[in-house]
Specification:
28% strand; alpha+beta; 5-stranded antiparallel sheet; Peptidoglycan synthesis regulatory factor (PBP3), Domain 2; Beta-lactamase; 10 helices
């Protein structure tokens, strides 16, 4: 079969819903920077596109948002099979003595990894964080080295970790430092690799120690903002109030990071304002449905049919900025011809969807019918034009 391809390009012109008024709530203009918070970033999750930034690269203390890196490394171990949810973790003396937010672990107590992970995500428990870090890294210091190595791997240029928990530094200690941009990248990595953690981060309360202790989520947005299911708050005095929040509405997920806010309620109101604006910037588009006939047929050599129209194998959808919806390009690549016999479901091309230089979706094309080869009589009739 001739493997040369023929390519057609089709611009998809789609109608964009009308926007009634030119204010921030409609998404027509960017939000104004906050005077009460030092730094903020808004990111669309599927693409990683940053659409708003206020001092996004300023190095600031993330406080307990440091724990997002601990969660990423720990869940990577689960995925690789090196750690299981029911693995027992023994609490060290060092872990039991951690202050701040905690679940009051005692020296030599044993808990399943999953229970301690919930304590980290929901309660922001520093004692559980140290117990997990020691179990994976051999020591707190060994785990911090792993955190910094992962930061380099992810390209987090403004990030340096000193602890697995984010507590304020003691005398002669350096603070954990990162940026709103780096935290957005980290949050996206965590959500894309391990979306199951959102089932924990969206919980308002959760019992611990057989119900003797009730953990309470410090992220108020999970109850106040539609679709918000995470991710992590942070606070100590010099760091200010911080939050990394994420919400999904109508198939669009936005990540918002707010750092260095003067008041606790401000971090939530600011994150909600930015997240609402971010969600308005995008729409999940159905680009094509499974079983859609291709716009061109493929010639069939020596078959009972002279051509066949392939169909798409799968549906394709993508999250696209509303102001770029009419820029989506559909590129169809087909085999130049098929030689009979042709089987049903035979791959014979692809359809790719492009937005600028980036591919945002793809599906294979396959034959929708079987085409037997012509017998000698059929070949003779076709040769004489009958």
């Amino acid at each position: 079969m001739n493997k040369r391809v023929v390519v057609w390009v089709l611009a998809m012109v789609l109608s964009i819903p009308a926007i009634r008024s030119a204010d921030e709530s409609t998404g027509l203009i960017p939000p104004s920077p906050s005077e009460e918070c030092r730094s903020a970033v808004v990111m669309e999750c599927s693409s990683g596109e940053i659409i708003f930034e206020q001092n996004g690269r300023e190095r600031l203390a993330p406080a307990s948002m440091t724990k997002m890196m601990l969660v990423l490394i720990a869940m990577d171990r689960v995925t690789s099979g090196d750690l299981a949810m029911n693995d027992p973790i023994t609490v060290s003396a060092r872990a039991s003595k951690m202050g701040g937010s905690q679940v009051y672990l005692a020296h030599n107590e044993i808990f399943p990894f999953e229970e301690l992970m919930k304590a980290v995500i929901i309660q922001s428990a520093n004692d559980a964080s140290v117990a997990i870090a020691e179990h994976i890294g051999g020591s707190v210091e060994g785990f911090v080295d792993m955190m910094n190595a992962m930061a380099v791997k992810l390209g987090l240029e403004e990030t340096t970790y000193q602890t697995p928990h984010g507590l304020p530094p003691g005398k002669d200690q350096e603070p954990d430092l990162t940026s709103a941009r780096d935290l957005a990248v980290l949050a996206r990595e965590l959500i894309m690799r391990h979306p199951e953690i959102l089932k924990w981060s969206c919980l308002d309360t959760e019992p611990f120690r057989d119900g003797k202790f009730l953990m309470t989520n410090t992220n108020r947005l999970i109850k106040q903002f539609a679709g918000c299911d995470g991710l992590k708050t942070g606070y100590y005095r010099s760091a200010g109030f911080c939050v990394t929040a994420t919400a999904e509405q109508d198939g669009v997920r936005i990540i918002t990071v707010v750092m260095g806010c003067e008041k606790g309620k401000t971090r939530f109101s600011e994150a909600a304002r930015l997240m609402k604006w971010g969600l308005l910037q995008y729409r999940k588009m159905e680009l094509i449905r499974a079983g859609t006939p291709c716009e061109r047929a493929i010639p069939v050599v020596a078959g009972e049919l002279v051509e066949t129209t392939p169909v798409t194998v799968s549906s394709v959808a993508a999250v696209v900025r509303r102001d770029r919806m009419n820029e989506v390009i559909m590129k169809t690549t087909l085999d130049r011809e098929l030689t009979a016999p042709v089987q049903t479901g035979q791959t014979c091309g692809t359809i790719a969807f492009l937005l600028g230089d980036h591919e945002i979706g793809r599906t294979e094309l396959q034959t929708a019918e079987a085409i037997p080869a012509l017998g000698w009589w059929g070949k003779l009739m076709r040769a004489v034009g009958l």
